[in-house]
Write a structure and sequence with these properties.
Residues 6-116 form the DUF2383 domain. This is DUF2383 domain-containing protein. InterPro entries: CHP02284, DUF2383, Ferritin-like, Ferritin-like_SF. It is a single chain. The protein has a single domain, classed as Ferritin, core subunit, four-helix bundle (Ferritin). Helix content is 80%, strand content 0%. The protein has helices at 3-30, 34-61, 71-75, 84-90, 93-117, 123-149. Helix 4 (84-90) packs antiparallel against helix 5. The radius of gyration is 16 Å and the shape is elongated. It starts with a helix and ends with a helix.
Length: 150
C-alpha cells in the first residue's frame, strides 16, 4: 500500500472510532442499569481518545492527508455501529450489550486487517494501533461478562 492508501485506512479506523463513540453514548443514554451506563460512558470516552490519538499519528505520518478525500472510508462508511438503532428500539440492557459486542468485534477485525495489510508503517503508529486493538479486546471480554450478568 502506498502512503495515501495507508492514510485512508487510518482515516477509516478514526471514523469507526467516532462511530463507536456515538454508539456507546447512545446505549449509555438507554441503559437501565447505572453501572452499565457508567461502563458505556467510559467506553465512549475511550473511543473518542482512540480517534484523537490516531488523528495525531496520521498528521505526523502524512501531513498532506485530506480527511475529506478518503475514498476507502466512504466505501464502507460506518459499518461498526450501524445496528445501534435496532438495539435501542428493544429497550433492554441485554440487547444493548449484544450490539456493543458486535460493534467491538467489527472494530477488532478492522484494526487487525489494517495491521496485516500494512507491515511497513512506522513503529509509533503500529504501537498505537496494537495497543488500541488490545484495549478493545479487553472491552470485548468485559462486555461478554456483563452480558452473562444481564
Amino acid at each position: 500500500m502506498d502512503k495515501k492508501e495507508i492514510s485512508n485506512s487510518i482515516q477509516e479506523i478514526i471514523e469507526n472510532n467516532n462511530d463507536s463513540y456515538k454508539g456507546y453514548k447512545q446505549v449509555a443514554d438507554k441503559a437501565n442499569d447505572s453501572q452499565l451506563r457508567s461502563f458505556f460512558i467510559q467506553q465512549a470516552a475511550e473511543r473518542k481518545e482512540f480517534a484523537g490519538k490516531l488523528l495525531n499519528q496520521l498528521k505526523i505520518y502524512n501531513p498532506d492527508h485530506n480527511d475529506n478525500a478518503s475514498g476507502s472510508a466512504v466505501g464502507s462508511l460506518h459499518r461498526t455501529w450501524i445496528n445501534v438503532k435496532t438495539a435501542l428500539s428493544q429497550d433492554n440492557d441485554e440487547a444493548l450489550l449484544e450490539e456493543c459486542l458486535r460493534g467491538d468485534k467489527a472494530s477488532i477485525e478492522d484494526y487487525e486487517e489494517f495491521l496485516n495489510n500494512n507491515k511497513e508503517i512506522p513503529d509509533n503508529l503500529r504501537s498505537t494501533i496494537t495497543q488500541q486493538v488490545q484495549d478493545i479486546k479487553n472491552t470485548l471480554e468485559s462486555v461478554s461478562r456483563l452480558e452473562d450478568v444481564h
